[in-house]
Specification:
- With about 300 residues, the chain is mainly α.
- It has 9 helices and 4 strands.
- Strands 1-4 form a two-stranded antiparallel sheet.
- Helix 2 runs parallel beside helix 6, helix 3 runs antiparallel to helix 8 and helix 6 packs antiparallel against helix 7.
- The longest helix has about 40 residues.
């Protein structure tokens, strides 16, 4: 592949990825969740505010850093061990190493799926505007819930007396859980990648142990959101479903060409084998018929 084609492909990839990621930036900077009301006797939104066990910086550092490092190291090892001929790729007159080309493809698809997962999550957050479990503690609504008239009334006319505008905004973004969807996507995708690209020559269960660690990281992150009073259990459940489903779809689409190529190869080999079997069968029946014909023309010999 020449330098011009490679550069065009790289620019196109970055433009598409940026276009998909742009709405995320718009949501974070200018998005305003809908203002929902509440019931005074709703105990699910009366939990105290707690700091996150898994802060955002740790979530993104591990969720993005770990899979990218594993992918790059794996592709370096596989490229070093590969003996199959490959099409050379040039960029600015320099031939790109195979591991760099494969790492770019793997990491690019992974990042695209991560952006899609977050997009689906943020659309839910800024459309539903569900109140977090610590909403009362953060908002401190200007309603006297001790009055009987408010006990079973859905209250929409209220003012939050809380001082932190950032916390007030976040208090309305409970559904679905962003930590759960992001951790599920990154770790499930990494588990699929390990299954597909890494082949252990030693222990049989070592690879599965690594995959289990990925799942446990995601699971622990999701559970921490409930323990920290950041999300309801249903928020976490839907977040896990979004992340897992996006990981499965993204990974399956990324290996679609390999699956099609494998099927074509198997189909070609099957056709070749069938042709060989049919040819052998024809030769066998021809020889058998020839022997029978000769046997019918030759006179029998009587032994005394």
């Amino acid at each position: 592949m020449d330098s011009r084609s490679v550069l065009k492909k790289v620019i196109t990839d970055f433009v598409v990825l940026s276009a998909v990621a742009l709405p995320l930036l718009v949501f974070r900077l200018f998005g305003t969740p809908p203002v929902r009301g509440f019931f005074c006797n709703d105990e699910t939104i009366r939990y105290p505010f707690k700091d996150s066990t898994v802060p955002n910086i740790a979530l993104y550092f591990v969720g993005l850093g770990l899979p990218i490092i594993v992918m790059c190291v794996t592709e370096i090892i596989l490229a070093h061990q590969s003996t199959e001929p490959t099409t050379p790729v040039y960029l600015f007159g320099m031939r790109m190493p195979l591991w760099l080309v494969k790492s770019y493809e793997m990491v690019g698809i992974f990042c695209f799926g991560a952006v899609c997962s977050q997009m689906i999550t943020d659309v839910g957050k800024y459309t539903i505007g569900r109140l977090r479990p610590h909403f009362f503690d953060v908002c401190d609504p200007s309603v006297d819930c001790s009055l009987s008239m408010y006990q079973y009334q859905y209250i929409t006319d209220y003012t939050c007396r809380g001082s932190s505008s950032k916390k007030l905004r976040e208090a309305r973004l409970s559904f679905p859980s962003g930590h759960s969807s992001f951790s599920a996507y990154t770790m499930v995708y990494l588990a699929f990648y390990i299954q597909s690209r890494i082949h252990w020559n030693g222990s049989v269960i070592l690879k599965h142990a690594a995959q289990l660690c990925c799942v446990l990281i995601s699971w622990a992150t999701a559970l921490s959101r409930i323990n920290d009073n950041k999300h309801h259990w249903s928020d976490v459940t839907v977040g896990l479903i979004i992340g897992t489903a996006t990981a499965v779809v993204t990974f399956c689409l990324s290996i679609k060409e390999e699956i099609v190529g494998f099927r074509k190869k198997c189909g070609t080999e099957k056709t070749y084998l069938l042709s060989r079997v049919r040819h052998s069968d024809i030769v066998y029946h021809g020889l058998r018929h020839s022997v029978r014909s000769r046997g019918s023309r030759e006179p029998s010999v009587a032994w005394s």
